[in-house]
Design brief:
Shape: globular
Largest sheet: 7 strands, antiparallel
Strand order of the largest sheet: 3-4-5-6-7-8-9
Number of strands: 13
Radius of gyration: 17 Å
CATH architecture: 4-Layer Sandwich
Order of helices and strands: EEEEEEHHEEEEHHHEEE
Number of helices: 5
Length: 257
């Protein structure tokens, strides 16, 4: 997962409204959003190479999402899979704060990441490029491959467009999905993020929706949870430069305990 925008406890109907793009190499084996047989109650996509996930929910009232923190100068060749981090929270029993506290001692074992974890009442953020986790107050947030609310072009654009859509008393899933398919580039090089890659690579990664011959936006997810804990979750899957789209919709009304 490489771009997430979300509103937490700000909308009158929905406690959480989240939109997310997962950017990945097209050839990386992936299973779309589904209920896992190995973990009853878990609804998430699956990275078939690493075995973990990038975003998911559990019917017991748990949510998690992951993005990588891009730092090409500090890559650990033998680091454990970051996709296991959201998975272990989703299927575990620890509170969000307890789970994130357990990650602090092993922060340096992983390549860079950002992690959102939450339950029915609270939402937390942690990056292993920070020294501690934080409980998020109500607000509108953007997260990409740097720290939460970093002032990148794509993050600013996402937050502005999401804010506009959330003026609707019941934001439409189709509009939320379309929001994440924005290929706009910054007007000039000065507004392109700098993470240590070549300018050509940084420019390719600058839009909200990424397209290139071998790497790009693989899927878009829309998650809405209302104040009665009813869930709507949709995923749109793209394959190889915007072709072979699939749409998966789930409604888990009144299932959160």
């Amino acid at each position: 997962m490489c771009l997430i925008g979300f509103s937490w406890k700000q909308h009158p109907l929905y406690k959480l409204v989240l939109v997310a793009n997962r950017d990945e190499f097209y050839q990386r084996p992936t299973q779309a959003l589904h209920f896992w047989e190995t973990y009853p109650g878990l609804l998430a996509g699956k990275d078939l190479e690493g075995g973990g996930t990038w975003l998911g929910i559990h019917q017991r009232g748990r949510f998690a999402a992951l993005t990588n923190y891009r730092d090409p100068a500090h890559i650990l060749a033998q680091a454990p899979s970051r996709g296991d981090l959201p998975l272990q929270f989703l299927v575990g029993a620890s509170s969000p704060a307890q789970y994130l506290a357990s990650l602090l001692p092993k922060a340096q074992a992983y390549n860079g990441y950002n992690l959102l974890v939450g339950d029915r009442e609270s939402l937390f953020y942690y990056s292993n490029y920070t020294t501690n986790y934080q409980m998020l107050p109500p607000g509108l947030y953007g997260l990409s491959n740097h720290l939460l609310d970093t002032d990148w072009f794509k993050v600013r654009r996402l937050k502005a467009k999401l804010h506009e859509l959330l003026q609707d008393p019941d934001p439409d899933d189709t509009a939320l999905l379309a929001l994440m398919q924005d290929p706009s580039l910054p007007a000039g090089e000065a507004d392109i993020q700098q993470t240590g890659l070549s300018l050509a690579q940084e420019k390719m990664l600058a839009p909200m929706f990424i397209q290139s011959p071998h790497y790009g936006t693989h899927s878009t997810t829309v998650l809405k949870i209302d104040y009665d804990h009813n869930i709507q979750l949709r995923e749109k899957v793209y394959s190889n430069a915007y072709r072979a789209e699939q749409l998966h919709s789930f409604s888990l009304a009144a299932t959160l305990g």
